[in-house]
Amino acid sequence: HCAMKRQNVRTLSLVVCTFTYLLIGAAVFDSLESQTEAKRWEFLQVLFTILIIDIGIRIKLCFHAVAVKNNFVKKYNVSTEDYRMIEIVIIENKPHKAGPQWKFAGAFYFATVVLAMIGYGHSTPTTVAGKLFTMCYAMVGIPLGLVMFQSIGERLNKFASVIIRRAKRASGARCTDATEMNLMLATGMLSSIIITTGAAVFSRYEGWSYFDSFYYCFVTLTTIGFGDYVALQNDQALTNKPGYVALSLVFILFGLAVVAASINLLVLRFMTMQAEDAKRDEQDAQN
Amino acid sequence: HCAMKRQNVRTLSLVVCTFTYLLIGAAVFDSLESQTEAKRWEFLQVLFTILIIDIGIRIKLCFHAVAVKNNFVKKYNVSTEDYRMIEIVIIENKPHKAGPQWKFAGAFYFATVVLAMIGYGHSTPTTVAGKLFTMCYAMVGIPLGLVMFQSIGERLNKFASVIIRRAKRASGARCTDATEMNLMLATGMLSSIIITTGAAVFSRYEGWSYFDSFYYCFVTLTTIGFGDYVALQNDQALTNKPGYVALSLVFILFGLAVVAASINLLVLRFMTMQAEDAKRDEQDAQN
Ligand SMILES: [K+]
Ligand SMILES: [K+]
Fold this sequence. Notes:
Two copies of one chain form a homodimer.
Chain A: H1 2-61, H2 63-75, H3 80-91, H4 94-98, H5 104-115, H6 128-170, H7 180-206, H8 210-221, H9 237-240, H10 242-286
The structure holds potassium ion (K) (2 copies).
One potassium ion (K) sits between chains A (117-119, 223-225) and B (117-119, 223-225).
């Protein structure tokens, strides 16, 4: 089938285009934001040191504060460790824990997050040039990403329908057609497998509970991307764990393609319904 | 035209459905999260008071810290006010400034942010029940939102094509058809008007620079939603400025519909192209 090949080639070239675009984006974001980040990084490290010294002094000298603290701890039934945690959480700088966000791996992650419209917000451009480039980048990247995901989704649906047809034929069913219901079930099942597997993996690597990890995967693959849980932000994973970085990116990109396959079935059906109505109207108007 | 009415009725009923769904979501989120928030709120207020006292004591007693601070200020060329700002930013709790996030207006805002897949992350569910409901809510809400926005977008395109046709006829053009290029230009222009107007409004209300405000509008209407800038998070706007809340929500919902109109033209065209290829393949296979 030559025509079949044409669609595969189109999908493949979209994937290549998107990856090239992500690489370019990563390089530009790196060059735009890395320097500012490095400066801020140094600044925060010094600030952090000062605050640690401050806390030390405070604990030694400030008896009044300790009294107030004890009172607080008693009244709200917080354990002393909890109070310590609160202090640390307030003072601790999250970027400190996550490591640099705009070195190549981080910049690539950011470009992916923009192109897929997830927008965690764990790192955002701080320079005017960075913000400007983000907008231009999204302007081209988002349609490119949409078309690519839809294209892969459509190929996945096609692939699923071929498999379903074969399975039906093998089982000797009377009707060997893959109905839309069958396809929806198939993509739904594939989505569930990806989310549950992804949740297990992230739960292990990020130290989240399985439920929280599932919530993270769901929020990511629906492209909501709250940013309350963000992968690759612990133990400087972006610089130290290239394998895990690759795994996370593959999870996001493949997962989105599968979700796109479901949405392709659902929304495309509505859109074509609406378009067909419009066409019929025009024909009615002409007659 | 009876058929014309049918599509309008469908779009309108989708809008009504979506608003009802948002109202229900707001009510549930309010009941699930408000209590936990209120507790945390009280907790933070006490913590805040303690920290203010701590700072007062620190400033009076901790000469060593002052020396370190002065050294830091000199070395990094930070003004003393800047240092004060940093201290305040670290200690200040953002929710404190924004006011309660899960009272009805805030919960409605959150439901909108989920349904439109923006996901700023300015407030996220903290209870297990809240997270669970968010997932169920998104599962139905996102397809509903997608179909509604696409539906409004399609109606907008139809409306634009009618206007373009009339304008062409009035100007006595030879070809009175509204081409796809014309439509793209029209939706592109409408999008620009909405973003530039929106940027002006938010810049005024939120105290952002025009550029930052434009960046916010762009990031919102592309549904990236980083959350580095979030409207309605100042001066307890969610509780104190109902008019501004309504304006922001209308901006988001109408803006997204216009963007959906552009994407409808762009992506739908690619998707139907792909679908037509598939159909042709099948016909080829049958012959
Ligand atoms: K998003
Ligand atoms: K987001």
